[in-house]
């Protein structure tokens, strides 16, 4: 039973890491296509990128944040898991994921630094980035 619980604790991180790499690949593709915002078509591409990246993130974060801890707590009560398992199979993988995210950076923050051709495009870009960071669903 211990091996199953350890696998269940690690599964969310092992599933989220490739998803984070996929999101980063989407950002890199966008950056190569749109090095600066020149017109409305570039803003539409940004809206599509932001909406795609916002879609699965809330659910994924809930699963990654709560599921491993609940499995560990259940295993601790059942006597199959120990306090050291909390560090080895939850804290350590989260630290690795945090390091990965710190290294690649946040796409919305990077996009906010892109050059913009005019003021109206800048306000649209800033609104999209604000929604992307602070909301769970796009409003466009």
Automatic annotation (TrEMBL):
Key words, A-Z: Membrane, Transmembrane, Transmembrane helix
Transmembrane feature ranges: 6-23, 63-81, 87-105
Protein name (database record): Uncharacterized protein
